[in-house]
Design brief:
Strand order of the largest sheet: 1-2
Number of strands: 4
Helix content: 40-55%
Strand content: 5-15%
CATH topology: Arc Repressor Mutant, subunit A
Order of helices and strands: HEHHEHHEEHH
Radius of gyration: 13 Å
CATH superfamily: Winged helix-like DNA-binding domain superfamily/Winged helix DNA-binding domain
DNA sequence: TGAGTGACTGTAA
DNA sequence: CTTACAGCCACTC
């Protein structure tokens, strides 16, 4: 079946909603969890148009940088993470490796 | 129709 | 962790 970017976006939203509070995830981890590791860019593209019920502020790039903060406006993204217990320095997650959450880990019993 | 753009990543050093 | 290079693909003009 052909690749459906619309469906891909829906899958991205569904998976991002699974990210636990106080944790963050990366575009690549999401893409990999959706079995599309090379389409990490589309994850960011999808989150740009995500509905309000998607915790997109929990998604950062591989360096732990809040690259999407400019789309939230002001320091909204940093504040949201802080409220969840994620320390952020300027525009980077503090001890990123420690707060990183892999969706694949949570899928161990899926399917 | 084609060049430019972007909330990116893996690998190597 | 950072920096540099190459690959990636939907969207815009």
């Amino acid at each position: 079946m052909p690749f459906d970017s619309q469906q891909f976006s829906e899958d991205v939203y569904a998976l991002v909603r699974l990210v636990p509070r106080g944790r963050v995830c990366t575009y690549g981890a999401v893409a990999k969890a959706l079995l599309e590791p090379s389409r990490s860019r589309l994850v960011g593209w999808a989150l740009n148009r995500c509905p309000d019920d998607v915790p997109a502020h929990r998604i950062v790039n591989r360096n732990g940088v809040l690259t999407g903060r400019q789309f939230f406006g002001g320091d909204t993204m940093r504040v949201l993470l802080k409220e969840e217990g994620v320390a952020v320095k300027e525009h980077k997650v503090v001890d990123f490796k420690n707060v990183f959450w892999s969706p694949i880990e949570d899928m161990s019993c899926e399917d």
